[in-house]
Amino acid sequence: MKPKNQPYPLYEVPRVYDLKQMIESSAERDPDRIAFRYRKGKTIIDKSISQFLAEVNAVGTWLYHENIRDCHVALIDHNSYAWPVVYFAVITSRNVIVPIDRDLNREEMLQLIAHSESTHVFTSAGLAGELREAIPDTAIHSLSDLDEIIRAGTEMMENGERDYLDVVQDVDRLAMIVYTSGTTGASRGVMLNQANLVADCNSGCHTFNPEGRSLSVLPYHHTFGLVVSLLMYMCWEVSVFINTGVRYLMMDFKDAKPITAMLVPLHIQTFHKMIMENAKKTGKYQKLRTGMKLSLFLYSLGIDVRAKLMGEIREAFGGDLRYIFVGGAALDPYYETEFRAWGIELITAYGATECSPGIAANRNFHHRSGSCGRAIECCELRIADDGEVMIRGENVMMGYYRDEEGTAQAMHDGWYASGDIGYLDEDGFLFLTGRKKNLIILSDGENVSPEKLEAGIARIEGVSEVMVYQQGDAIDVQIFPEEAFAGRQDWFEEQIKKYNETLPPAQRIRNVKLREEEFPKSTSRKILRHKVLK
To answer: I need a labelling partner for 418 at 20 to 30 A (CA). Which of 26, 128, 335, 489 fits?
Structure first.
C-alpha cells in the first residue's frame, strides 16, 4: 500500500556523544552484529562490530606506544576496510585526522599534507614509497602493514598498556581537517570537531531509516561518504558493504543486496541511461515504458506491485533496493519519478563540508519532489536578501584551517554563507536554484542559473556530460557526448535549437562545443568548472 506523504514523528535511534562511545555502545548492544562486509579477491569478508572495535583499540594503542599523540595524521587511500579502522583510531586518540583524496595528482597531495601540517601519513603500499622519497621528514605508514600493527597493538593491550583505552574524548577539540573539493577554486581545510560530527549524525539518523543492509560507494575522504555512509550507518547499526572500486560496483550490488545505497546524481543519471540504452538494444524499450506507466498508475491508487513489474531492472541492483540517498549536487526531479516506477525512492538531501555535512534532508515517507528536504534538528536555515542559503547550528565548522580571511568571508554572526541560491516553501522544504559563484549575469541584468539549463540539456539523447557557462554577453555550452554520438555536431546543434524554443530569449544558448574527453571532475563527481574555464 502506498504510504502517505506527510509529517510523522522522528525515528528513535540511540544517541551518540562521541566517536569512541559510538562504537563501544553498539558493540555492547549486539557484539556479533556484522558491521562491515568487503571483497577480498573472490572472497567476501565479514567483520562484526566487536571485531571492528578490537582492531580500532589495537591501532589506537599502537599509536600511543609510538608516541603519535597530538599530531596531524593524513589518511590517503581509496575506500577499504582499513580506512575506517585507521580513521576511528586516529580521531579518538586526540590526534587530528586529515582525509585526503587518493586520486589527486602528487603536487596537490603534497600541498595538502604540507598545509595541514601532517607529520604522519597512512596510505597504500604503492604510494607510501613515493611519499617517503618526496617528503622524507614525514613519517609514512603503509596500510599493507595494518595487520601487523593490529597484532602489535593487541599484544600491547594484553601486556597492560591502557593509555589509549583510558583517553577521555574532548568533543570540542579539533578532530578533523577535511578539504573541500574546490570546484570553483582552491581547496580549503574545513576544521571539524567531534561535537560537529555527532550532532550531524544524531540529527540525520532521526530523520531517515535505512531499513537494513547498505552499500557504501562514495569516497570516505568526502564528508558525505564519510558521515552519511559510514558514521551514520554505525549509529543505525546496519551492515555496510564497502565498495572498493567502480569496476566492482554492479557486482557488489548483486552480492550485497542492499536496501539502501548512498550515491551522487551522476551515478543516478548513468544508471538510468544504462538501463534505457540496454532496453533499446534488446527491443524492450516500449515494453519497459508501458510497464513503468502501469507501475506508477497502480502505485498512485495504493497498489504497490512495482517490485513484481520491475523485477528485471531491480535485479541489477541486487533485488532488494528501496532507497537511494542522493547528495553532493542537485538532482533533476525527472529521475525521482523514473526510479519510483522501479520501486526505488530517491531520497534527496543537502549538505556542505562546512556543515559536517548534513543540512537538510527528505524522509522515507515525507518528501517533496525537486527539494532537498527540511532542515535537520541540529541546524536552522534562512534565506538572505540575495537568495543565498545561510546555516546556523551545532554542525557548523570551527573555521578554515590557517585561513582567517576565508573564515571571516564564510561566517556572518554565527551563520555560514553556503554560496548556494535557493528558497524555502511554506512547509520549510528547501529548493536550490544554483550556485552564487556560477550565476550568469547578462548585461541587461538577467540572472541565469547554469545548473537549471544543464538539467534540461542532460536529458537530450547522446549527452553524457554537460556544462553551461557565460561567454561575453551570451550563454554557451560544452557537451561530452556518449560514444555513439561522438562528433555529431549537427545533431547537438539541432537539439539545442529545439531546447532553446522552450526557454525565455535571455536564457537561450548560442554556441555548442563538443568535447573529445570527459570534463575534469572531483571524486564526488562534480565538474571542476574553474579548470574547464581556464
So the answer is: 335
